Amino acid sequence: MTITISLQAWEDLQQEVNETVQYDPFDPLDVTWQLPQLVGYGYMRWIELRQGLELEITNFRLCDRLILDCPELPSRLKFHCHLSGQHEDKLTSVGDREFALYGSGLAPKELNDGPRQKALEVTVYMQPETLRSFVGNSNGQLPVGLQQLIRPNERERYTRVAKITPSMESVMWQILQCPFQGIMKRMYLESKALELVSLVLGQESEIQQGERTIKPLNAGTLERIHYARTLLLQNLHQPPSLPDLARQAQLNEYTLKRGFRQVFGTTVFAYLHKYRLEQARQLLTTGQMAVSEVMKAVGFSDRHHFAAAFRKQFGVSPREFLMRHKCSV
To answer: Are residues 279 and 199 in the same domain?
Structure first.
């Protein structure tokens, strides 16, 4: 079954259905809307951080395919980041662990198509004046590498889709696991929203200035890079050294290091570290293992190191994360 609804009707539904929740009693600008059962279950949360800067957190499961019929409208900047979920519109197709950067300007008439799925997304909305206040010069002019992001309302907006980097994903989890309420929460989330925006803008500037032009890997090297990743993840407790990994994958160290960063966006052992933490998060989510068991299962031997690394990645300690998920079951 496919549900097709106009954008206006969707917004009216949000107003009519008395399904809002105030998770933070100290912040009237933090509102959560529960999806009606007709569409699915989960929530969409909006937090106005300051004038011209808004954060949206989406965590829901659609029961059926949902198509939003969107009219042609002037739009603000949008930094739309997926941990999971996918959607397509006229200008973009965004999947798991990808982000879409939308500049300001004219959003064309389009159908925003989302399949039956689980979606976990973080989106930052920003007015052009807000972006100018952060990165513009004294006259409000943006750097050359970012000028395409602000266009007049009659001109179609700029878009680009790319993979989420490990740094972006880390910030997204910190936003999702924010431990504060009230003014501390607002300050924390604003800093993290701006950090996420800065990571996207830094990449955008480099791309526009041609600094990320890299010679593509040939098919054989690409296959061996992926084989190196497989070898690495098969040995979480005793991973091979870089020379050993290169030898087993039949690559020299330089090609392994350069190719691994090119394919996976980070270094070999930073990738391993992040993978261990993600596996730990998934095991803790089940609520069936103690923190010490999870730590050993993913290859950590020091509980203080594990706890510090987990908190840095996800914004809470492993024990706090486990207790939250046990309480939610």
So the answer is: no
Is 213 within a domain? Answer: no
207 DSSP 8-state letter: H
Question: In this structure, what DSSP letter does residue 147 have?
Answer: G
Say which range, 65-69, 97-101, 322-326, has the weakest mean pLDDT.
Answer: 322-326
Nearest to 122, CA basis, from 44, 181, 61, 185: 44
Final residue belonging to a domain, choices 152, 178, 208:
208
How confident is the prediction for the chain on average, in pLDDT? 90
| 3-class secondary structure, 140 | coil
Higher-confidence residue: 204 or 12? 204
DSSP string covering 279-310, please?
A: HHHHHHHHT-S-HHHHHHHTT---HHHHHHHH
- Among 255, 173, 171, residue whose Cα is nearest residue 215: 255
Domain of residue 315, residue span: 219-328
One domain for residues 268 and 127 = no
- What's the pTM value of the predicted model, to 2 decimals? 0.73
Token pair recorded at residue 148:
């395409």
C-alpha distances (whole Å) from 199 to each of 46, 79, 148, 184 are 22, 11, 17, 23
Query: Which tokens go with 133?
Result: 């206040």
Domain tally, the chain: 2
Enter the tokens of residue 123: 């989106």
Domain endpoint, select from 208, 238, 263:
208
